[in-house]
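Moderator note: this is an archived Q&A kept for reference. The question asked for a predicted structure of one protein chain; the sequence and the answer are reproduced below.
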Amino acid sequence: MEGYLWWAIAGMTLVIAELVTGTVYLLVIGLAGLAGAAVSYLNYPLGMQAVVAAAVATVGVVLVNRYRVTQAKSAGGASLDIGQNVVLDAWVNKKDGLARVRYRNALWDAKLLDEQAPEVGSILYIRNVEGNTLHVSKTIPA
């Protein structure tokens, strides 16, 4: 079988896998495989095929990543978790307002935004999400 067919099969397989997963990254890598197939079809050596495929993949992944970061910033960091309730499970450092809360049947790190520390078992509300830390308060966000 010709080299360009191997590239094309790999590229199409990745594009089809992208349709199943919906991550966009596989689409970019699949398109890079198809670019490698085009270069192979033009009878360039294997090294050139690999360089073109790698270049297309790298540029595509960087562009997709920049797009995702831009979209996250334009959304204002809005998270579907904001406003959801959590249960205070334990204090890590009561003085600094650091606690562990139960949310979605898992324990999360939390930073309490209120001045007065609630009791263990209290219901709190997510005001903000910063990385893996939930910023919580007794008041429901507007």
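Archived answer notes: The domain at 85-137 is CATH 2.40.50.140 (OB fold (Dihydrolipoamide Acetyltransferase, E2P)).
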